[in-house]
Amino acid sequence: MLKVLYVASEAVPFVKTGGLADVAGALPKELKKQGVDVRVVIPKYSGIKEEYRNEMEHIYDGTINVAWRQKYIGVDRYDYKNVPFYFVDNQEYFYREGYYGYPDDVERFTFFCRAVLDMLPKIDFWPDIIHLNDWQTGLVSVYLKLEHNDDERYNKIKTIYTIHNLKYQGRFWKGYLPDVLGLDWKYFNNGDLEYFDDINFMKGAIVYSDKVTTVSRTYAKEIQDPYYGEGLEGMLQKRKDDLSGIINGLDYDDYDPETDKYVPFKYNVSNAIARKGDNKEELQKKLGLPVNRSIPLIGMVTRLVEAKGLDLVTRIMDELLEYEDVQFVLLGTGDRQYEDWFKGLVWRYPKKVSANIFFNNELAHQIYAASDLFLMPSQYEPCGIGQLIALRYGSIPIVRATGGLKDTVEAFNNYTNTGNGFSFNNYNAHELLFSIKRAIDSVSELSKRQHIMENAMTADYSWTESAKQYKDLYNSLTK
């Protein structure tokens, strides 16, 4: 049986700050169904709920070296939905509020990477593949190749490194190389870990991993271009034969309009139009908007940051609301300038706009279930989960054709009735406005709306196919 150790800095249901946690919770579960002996390892943060912490089985205690420091390591285990999870424990590093953004992050995650390799003989699990995710795990492949090459058990292990977002690379002062990473300067001077005179965890992983993946086919191509490459495009071009894109899936158990506990009126593809109308009226009442199921409702659930295309939205929203009979519902937090702008939009259009400047999972599900259209005009989007949920719930996505949005949303064709959403290519406010108006016109015609919703809700973006592609990649490395 194929054996895989899946390494991440967060995973649902234990810890979540972003989409990585969803992937680390769902992909191993699906791999397990497909016959892979997969196990997950994450840090044991103090923020993990007591209900999980109290049920963990303690495996072992020990010490490991972080350069000249000798540090405590503990490892606990908890099986969740048939998948074993291991938790690397060190109170100094992981018992604090929040998960990232501390001055000693370089030391915390160097420790974690060393701990992952140190624990293998203690848990008696020798994987065929170690699957690494994002910068926090990047040094695992570096240490595997540089420090364990005299041990046959480690020599047999292959590594895959997945880039979830190229922007966050784990970049630190070069002086940490000997003092924290415990590595010789030659690995900096030869360019393996050097990045504009700093050290870079992600670059190290790209150099030393056997294969590199990203979370969509289009993003794998985009990041080889300077516009998207964040300074690593040259290294990614060099590794292009070992670079591939596998789209993230959606956990169809967690997101199912037929069983969703947050959705007042459950529905499926056969009764979606009527039931979504019922859900829309419920949401309108809840948010204090005029109750009218025939008014097109545009939803947006997002972090309020520039990368999500909010500069385009702020440029066209007044014109849209002034001349179109629509309602707009926003949920999310982020940069103060955008939070304030959307509060101002509510003041200008109190009967058309509801801006909810917080995050609430229940309300998010209700927006997906109630909205006719879903807005996601990102500057860049490695994969995106919002559009996948929107498709599942029959909320027709309007996206910019970039990254995973391009791979999952096909523009609707009026003549062939194919396609599951609306898209535009250039990062341009008027292209966005035109796409929204076209979408409003299309969903106002019942027959067209029926076609688009059927196409959206029957598109399969579950984890089944994505997990199969990962399994095939694993197998290609073990031959």
Description:
This protein is of the alpha/beta class and 479 residues long. Helices cover 41% and strands 19% of the residues. It is built from 22 helices and 18 strands. A nine-stranded mixed sheet has the order 3-4-5-2-1-6-7-11-12, sandwiched between helices. The chain has a six-stranded parallel sheet with strand order 15-14-13-16-17-18, sandwiched between helices. The longest helix has 16 residues, at 272-287. The model has no long low-confidence stretch (mean pLDDT 96).
Biggest sheet strand order reads 3-4-5-2-1-6-7-11-12
What Rg do the Cα atoms give?
Answer: 23 Å
Give the helix/strand class.
alpha/beta
- Amount of beta strand: 15-25%
User: Low-confidence segments, ≥5 residues, pLDDT <50?
Assistant: none
Outline the biggest β-sheet: 9 strands, mixed
- Our count of helices gives 22
Number of strands: 18
Q: Helix amount, in percent?
A: 40-55%
Distance between the termini: 13 Å
Rounded mean pLDDT is: 96
Name the features.
479 residues; alpha/beta; six-stranded parallel β-sheet; elongated
Summarize the entry for a quick read.
The protein is 41% helix and 19% strand. It has 479 residues and is α/β, with parallel strands linked by helices.
Secondary structure topology:
Blueprint: E1 3-7, H1 19-33, E2 37-43, H2 50-53, E3 57-66, E4 69-80, E5 83-89, H3 91-94, H4 105-118, H5 120-123, E6 129-133, H6 139-147, H7 152-155, E7 158-163, E8 171-173, H8 176-181, H9 186-189, E9 194-195, E10 198-200, H10 201-208, E11 211-214, H11 217-222, H12 226-229, H13 233-238, E12 243-245, H14 272-287, E13 297-301, H15 310-323, E14 327-331, H16 336-348, E15 353-356, H17 361-370, E16 373-376, H18 386-392, E17 396-400, H19 403-408, E18 422-424, H20 429-443, H21 446-458, H22 463-478
Parallel strand pairs: 1-2, 1-6, 2-5, 6-7, 7-11, 11-12, 13-14, 13-16, 14-15, 16-17, 17-18
Antiparallel strand pairs: 3-4, 4-5, 8-10, 9-10
